[in-house]
Amino acid sequence: MKTIRQIYDEIFSNENNYYYPKAKIFRMKEWTEQEALTFIKTYFEAGSKEIFCGYNMLEKYNRAVHTVSLYALGVFLYEKMEISFKCDNVIGGKDSFLYIWYMTCLYHDMGYVYENGRGRDLNGCETLDLFIKKALGGNPRLFYKENKENASLEDLCRNYYKYIYETRGHIDHGVVGGIILYHNLIKNYEEKKQKSGNSNKTTFYDESKNVWFSEELFQYYEQAAILIAKHNMWYASSEKSEAYKAAGLEALILGNNQRINFDKEEPVEQLLFMLYFADTIEPLKAYNQCNPQFVLDHLKLDIAKSSDGLNVDFYIDARALKVSMLEDRMRSLEDFLDVECKTETLSDDCMRVGIVIKR
Fold it and tell me: pLDDT value at position 60?
């Protein structure tokens, strides 16, 4: 059985685990925040999306190691979970996943720059409309207005943003992150089209990066934006259901004993299930007060199918790491996902903490 460090090293050394396999994307070695920021920056640059390297955003972002670890964990989980996609006919296969995953994963927490007040001054933005006006100015491109199928998300995003602002006193990083991602992806497309000299075409080629741009890829932009916007929307526990109803968040209220089952979800929701799951159990987030290399070296991970579903098992060196730091996060998923957490003491210094994704 391999340590997570060994698993990640194998993932990052395999070009097939990057959407842009020939690009010079930085490889993680020491697992510092600066290395992780360089990984994120070079990945966006490889996709000719330098727009995400501006605004001093990356310099103010302090969750980069978690982000890069989540990217690798997601790649590791992908084939085991057998996720399908609505728009596979455009890119196809694993590349569809890698395209959506890198945009989603590498930007999913960038909204913390606003939530934590590390970005531009957005105090007083108690509604989503005020935030959009102040952050994006006129003519914002909003994913929930571009496609009629996403119309129901407009109220959900507005209401969840307002609920978080009123109950916690800050901006919700998920909602604003999804909105900014989509707006800037479209803005980047339009700027690249003008520079290419193909302003009348919907598909064109960026020779400097060997990257194709096309309006057909807008559906991937939408999916990435939806995933980010919803990844921090927690479903209501029984004690919060009345507050959610009052806030217009009925879509986030589950019935008695109801849980979200992976196999019963639509393709985009399957990826959201995986994002909820992976973002919660990601080990460098659970042990964020520890040295990342130390954590990766003292945790082993095994994923295997069983008669119950998909077993995701961590083997924790209990002498080095506090088991409850990861176990408590895994058990929190039982509140709304159709999963079951199991623990087993294997020896005085080894604890297995597993979770079964019901299939």
Answer: 65
